[in-house]
Amino acid sequence: LFQPAVSVGNVGQLAIDLVISTLDMTKVGYFYTDCLVPMVGNNPYATSEENSKELSINAEVYLLPSKKLVVLQIRSPFIKNKYRLFCDTLLSWVKSCNCARVVVLSSSHAYQRDDEQLLGTPLRYLLTPDLEKAVGGHIQELKWKEMEKVAAYPGVNDTEKVLHIPGGGITKLLFTESCSKGIQMAVLLKFCSEGDNIPDAFALVNYLNDWLQLIKSEVNTSSQWKAPSSWRLLFGSGLPPALF
After folding, report:
1. What topology is assigned to 2-214 in CATH?
2. Gene3D superfamilies, from UniProt (predicted)?
3. Backbone phi, then psi, for 60, in 5-degree steps?
4. Exposure of 196 in the CB half-sphere (CA atoms within 13 A)
5. What are the DSSP calls for 115-177, one per residue?
6. Which residues, listed in sequence order, are joined to residue 126 by a DSSP beta bridge?
7. Which of 54, 92, 115, 170 satisfies CB 3.0 to 4.6 Å to 43 for a cystine?
8. How far is C-alpha 10 from the geometric centre of its chain's CA atoms?
9. In whole angstroms, what is the distance from residue 75 CA to residue 55 CA?
């Protein structure tokens, strides 16, 4: 199961868009919950005038049987104080469906990194203990950087470290709950800032592809991913050619 966290820059959701569009996944249902702001809109993955009239809502489920892959796309923010209820409902659904593994695509505020997190790649990962046993060796071969823990009380007590994902929405809650419930979960995230976050989405989905090889490619590039039709005016219509 792939799913985004509603986090800074909506990077996880944009990355999930790329997965669904590129793999041409089929919508098979909805994830009904009152924890998300209600929303309805046109089909974000329309390929023709006919299917552009299909409606989409705030949480939908897509399937690709050939890869044993299920994707939950979330398109609206959470209602205040309903984070934990959504987390409990989601993880109960994961267990009832016997999902082997869960991958959460997320992001975190770049400006709140500590000194150690400023070094090297802006991409990070987390694995629950159960998933660490299964894939930890492969992840080490990829030479990825694990999300660093930071001082709980900076400048006062630097020895006590905690997991801190500012701007990550429910990422930390999902991860810690999955650790305690024995769920195999990976979190892949990117440090970023608000703005045009399409490049961040490409970077995150390439990071995912390095591990799971959704698309066979020797070198990950943005051109191998298919952007959905809904991205056409995502950040405006662009400047008129006459201005150049």
Report:
1. Rossmann fold (3.40.50)
2. PAC-like subunit
3. -130, 155
4. 8
5. TGGGSS-SEEEEE-HHHHHHHHHHHHHHTPPBPPPEEEETTTEEEEEE---TT-TTHHHHHHH
6. 187
7. 54
8. 8
9. 13
For residue 230, the one-letter residue type is: S
Tokens of 170: 């429910």
* Entry pTM: 0.92
The radius of gyration of the chain from alpha carbons, rounded to an integer in Å, stands at 18
138's tokens: 């492969």
Please count the residues of the chain. Answer: 244
Helix extents (H) in 43-128: 83-96
Each residue's pLDDT expressed in tens, for the chain with a length of 244 residues: 999 999 999 999 999 999 999 999 999 999 999 999 999 999 999 988 888 889 999 999 999 999 999 999 999 999 989 999 999 999 999 999 999 999 999 999 999 998 888 988 999 999 999 999 999 899 999 999 999 998 887 767 677 889 999 999 999 999 999 999 999 999 999 999 999 999 999 999 999 999 999 998 766 666 789 999 999 878 766 556 665 4
According to DSSP, the β-strands at 157-162 and 150-153 are antiparallel
CA 140 to chain centre: 21
Look at the block and give the residue holding tokens 């249902």. Answer: 29
Which tokens go with 81? 């104080």
Residue 188: its H or E element = strand 185-192
CA distance 149 to 123: 15
